[in-house]
Write a structure and sequence with these properties.
single chain; 771 residues; seven-stranded antiparallel β-sheet; globular
């Protein structure tokens, strides 16, 4: 199996298509990249800038360049020595515009008689034999807007098929609608009455059943061509938690790809590991991101930050937010599970739904993969019975129904057991990532996908242990710092993290900001001001767009479905104050100035650790320079590749850049680390901790990968306050070394940290005997 030494993620869209991507190949080679990593390229909803709403899995998207451009990119990459990794989406398809999705259009036209009825998860009985499509507005006369036009049923700009023989001359749109295999309903009814499986709570992404052999084959026909024609070297699987049988899917995919490198976008909670039977090399790296970020957080700042934004413990907060999801936007899924409870259980339907919702709420990880993860279900049972003792008997009855293996190790999973597993991840994602992460705001650099914000920091011993485990158990998993899904770019987080070392000053400034520009929600205010500090300077437009999305995701003072105009006006006024009012702007810019230099130190340290630690490092597009983005779509802004290409030229012929030189120091670190990993893979074959001695030893973190030694500075402000490195030394393994970043030479044994970090707060040492 061909495996990457590093990857570089490109977001393919109409404005940066496959032809444009091919033009970046020479730059990526010069940067040191080993594989190019593409976002989804199959035909998606027209105008989609992310590609996860695939409408035709059998073709490469014409808007993204089409088949010819895709094939050309793959050939160009291979000719340059790069592998190709492509993101694919097996769980769902886009149905926002039915006419663009032939499978969905046929389903709507023919109902249960459609060949594609087997491809979608539809509970026909719950809809009276019709599939409910939530598109109608709130007026009592919405059906008056239904019109028959050119053999189709139109509702404003929405178009739907008309079943053969169901429209007669003179019929009104409403009359024709009543005869269709679908029922157009008010959009608000989706929360509790939808009868098809979705991706999370997105009505326009309908789940597909790739566990059905012919559905798998047709949905992967183009992917199969990629491997048959040796165009692609590996795949990244989007949201395997939504699949009925992730392990079975990965086995079939492994056969299709001929055993190609495979990654899964799987969120692992702290301490959780991938099921051993999964045919994949690892995850997309959020688990590693959480470890790296916490290396740079000062534990001494926690008490002050806790006091500044008092809130309930995270474990209790997420119980409330997850229960809000099961009772809210995912109520349809809960009710469907309750309908699957067999009558022989003799449970009241309302109690069944209540207990199912509580079990989903108490589930400690994204999902189980029975028989793997049965302990997680048992844990949810115990927690649910503690929180809802009134439901104890119902929960005890449900437990063996949700895990048939409790009574028979050879049992077959029922539809109830399968669907519960598919649903728990939806609840976790919406209740934790998309709600609680916007409410638990003491230090928002910790609020990242795959992380537990209640884990404030990790010491060097804990990080060494985590990286050693990575080397021993998942050496080919991906390492990420920024992705298209991260809530904040890596350098935004690195600057926010400095607030843990400035806890007193930050909390005082937060009080002043709340007095000068109050918004009436102190928890969200903390998130808002941290975001502005972390991403500053940013445009007013970006700031307003971010706070609007973030506040509605928090679902506390305002909401997506019911915006609070008064609150949002105050919030936007506060954002304007950051730009327009001298006293507010002064507080923001002062904190930006105080966090800038230590933030750059954190950025370089985190980046070098990520690039050289066990696993396959990914560089998200553009993040080889400072990456101060916020949540999507902000993190999908265009990348100036010409500037980055010129930057590599300048580094080749110029002096070493200053750390504040527009990100050039980061480009230097990234390029040197990537080139070393690509050209000297034997230097990255193991892992051993490298210890430090002296009064500031806790501020250095170092490891030896087998001839390449990474050394970084942590908690830079604390180091400065303590008087610098003084007698601190990093104890290198025996040998002679040169720094791949600066060219400086070192001998093994104790090396004064002041000399090691004289030019930059990081060093990448290469053992000369290995050359």
């Amino acid at each position: 199996m061909l495996t990457p030494k590093s990857t570089y993620r490109l977001q393919i869209r109409s404005s940066f298509d496959l032809t444009a991507a091919a033009e970046t190949v020479p730059y990526l080679v010069d940067l040191g990249v080993d594989w190019v990593y593409l976002s989804p390229v199959l035909t998606a909803e027209q105008g989609s800038d992310h590609g996860y709403d695939v409408t035709d899995p059998t073709s490469v998207d014409p808007e993204r360049g089409g088949t010819e451009a895709f094939d050309a990119l793959c050939r160009t990459a291979h000719e340059a020595g790069l592998g190709v990794l492509v993101d694919i989406v097996p769980n769902h398809v886009g149905v926002a515009t039915p006419a663009q999705n032939a499978w969905w259009w046929d389903l709507l036209a023919k109902g249960k008689d459609s060949r594609y009825a087997e491809a979608f998860d539809v509970d026909w009985d719950a809809g009276g034999g019709r599939i409910r499509v939530p598109v109608l507005g709130d007026s009592d006369t919405e059906e008056d807007q239904l019109k028959v036009v050119d053999g189709e049923l139109h509702y404003y700009e929405n178009r739907f098929p008309i079943a053969e023989g169901t429209a007669q001359p003179g019929d009104t749109g409403a009359q024709v609608h009543a005869r269709q295999h679908y029922e157009l309903v008010n959009w608000r009814r989706a929360d509790s009455e939808l009868n098809y499986r979705r991706f999370f709570g997105v009505n326009t992404l309908a789940g597909v059943r790739v566990e059905v052999p012919w559905v798998f084959d047709e949905a992967h026909s183009e992917v199969r061509r990629w491997f048959t024609e040796s165009l692609v070297d590996g795949v990244r699987i989007d949201h395997p938690d939504g699949l009925a049988d992730p392990a079975g899917y990965l086995e079939r995919l492994r056969e299709l790809s001929g055993g190609a490198y495979t990654l899964v976008e799987k969120i692992l909670e702290p301490g959780e590991v991938l099921p051993e039977r999964w045919a994949c090399e690892g995850t997309t790296g959020y688990d590693g991101l959480a470890v790296v970020d916490r290396l740079f957080v000062d534990p001494a700042g926690q008490p002050a930050l806790d006091a500044a934004v008092p809130t309930e413990p995270f474990v209790h907060m997420i119980h409330g937010t997850k229960r809000g999801i099961t009772d809210g936007i995912l109520r349809s899924e809960v009710l469907r599970l309750a309908r699957l409870v067999p009558g022989s259980a003799q449970l009241d339907p309302e109690q069944s739904a209540d207990a199912v919702a509580e079990l989903l709420t108490c589930f400690p990880v994204y999902r189980s993969y029975l028989p793997d993860g049965a302990d997680h279900l048992a844990d949810a049972v115990l927690n649910a019975k503690v929180r809802r003792p009134d439901l104890g008997p119902v929960i005890d009855t449900l437990h063996p129904l949700l895990n048939p293996y409790l009574s028979d190790a050879k049992a077959e999973l029922t539809e109830l057991a399968v669907r519960f597993q598919q649903t728990s991840g939806m609840v976790m994602a919406k209740g934790v990532e998309d709600t609680a992460f916007y409410r638990f705001n003491r230090l928002t650099s910790l609020n990242e996908v795959g992380a537990d914000p209640s884990i404030f920091s990790l010491d060097t011993h804990e990080v060494h242990r985590a990286l050693l485990e990575r080397q021993e158990f998942s050496p080919l998993t991906m390492n990420s710092l920024s992705t298209h899904d991260t809530k904040r770019g890596e350098d935004t987080r690195a600057r926010i993290t400095v607030l843990s070392e400035l806890a007193g000053e930050w909390t005082e400034a937060l009080d002043q900001l709340n007095r000068l520009a109050p918004i009436g929600d102190t928890a969200f205010a903390s998130l808002m001001w941290q975001a502005l500090i972390g991403a500053w300077p940013l445009s007013r437009e970006r700031a307003h767009a971010y706070v609007e999305k973030a506040s509605r995701e928090a679902d506390a003072s305002t909401h997506w479905t019911a915006p609070n105009a008064a609150f949002e006006e105050k919030m936007h006024d506060a954002v304007d104050a950051a730009f327009d009012r001298p006293e507010v702007n002064g507080l923001i810019t002062s904190l930006v100035e105080k966090t800038a230099a230590p933030g750059w130190s954190n950025s370089l340290g985190a980046k070098l650790v990520q690039l050289t630690m066990p696993g396959v490092p990914d560089v998200y597009q553009g993040s080889e320079l400072w990456e101060t983005s916020l949540v999507d779509p902000d993190n999908r802004r265009p990348v100036d590749f010409a500037a980055r290409k010129q930057g590599l030229v300048d580094l080749a012929f110029g002096a070493l850049p200053q750390i504040d030189d527009g990100g050039m120091a980061k480009l230097l670190v990234v390029s040197r680390a990537l080139r070393l990993r690509r050209d000297r893979p034997e230097l990255f074959s193991g892992y051993r901790s490298v210890l430090s001695t002296g009064s500031a030893a806790e501020h250095a973190f170092s490891f030896d990968r087998g001839g390449a030694v990474t050394a970084v500075t942590r908690l830079p402000l604390g180091l400065e306050r303590a008087g610098g490195w003084r007698d601190t030394a990093v104890v290198l393994p025996e040998g002679t070394y040169s720094c791949a970043i600066t060219g400086t030479g070192f001998e093994g044994g104790p090396v004064p940290a002041a000399r090691l970090f004289e030019t930059y707060p990081v060093a990448l040492l290469v053992k000369e005997e290995a050359q």
